[in-house]
What does this fold into?
Amino acid sequence: MGYYQTNPQFGNVSGNLDRIKASLEPIEADLLVLPELCASGYQFLSREEAYDLAEPVPDGPTTRRLLELAKRKDLFIVAGLPERCGSVCYNSAVLVGPRGFLGCYRKTHLFFEETLFFAPGDTGFQVWNLGGVTVGIMICFDWYYPESARTLALKGADIICHPSNLVLPNCPDSMPVRCLENRVFAITCNRVGRETRGGKPPLTYIGNSEIVSPMGDILHRAPGDQEHLCVVDINPADARNKAVTPYNDLLQDRRESLYK
It folds into this structure.
């Protein structure tokens, strides 16, 4: 499994997808994660601009092109995009695979100006069985809420796929805690570069995409300032051992009645 940390050009959906396709052609992997809003860019100036760049799922150009790539490469891909559904836009991520479209997650916890352009996600946290491994999706700022990763773990996720456009510094050092407290793998795929549009303060993306083990070990972390493609081998079964000691099971020992 792996990630491709990119630096998309705002609004150049076709060109950004061309670069993704070319970069992924040489690799061999089972699962790969791309950033949040990986082909559109992030710093929208208006709700209308976000709507114009948003696409239907699964019939829009981004999902279609990812489906073609997934089929040709025998690869599962998780990628973020602005989703258009009727008159509403969501900050979403699609999951596609060699046999087609599997599903779409809409971001639950919107960050900063996303609240101006997108509706809060209504899908809830979902998992998909890819044949021997179960994956779940959360997007960027969702990590800030421990309930996001915990819900996915309780639903059986072995791997949390985490497309991101991180600008705050905290996530890379926090995801090992999310993985440890849920005993799951996580692939956080961020972007790099800088966007400054319409006189707004610039957004600088921190990179540092990473793959983290169920024991909280960082298996690989990308640089903060350049594109980076990484694939590592894992054993998904490592995420199914929730024993902390011979007397403690991480999930079975939860006392939900006292958490209200």
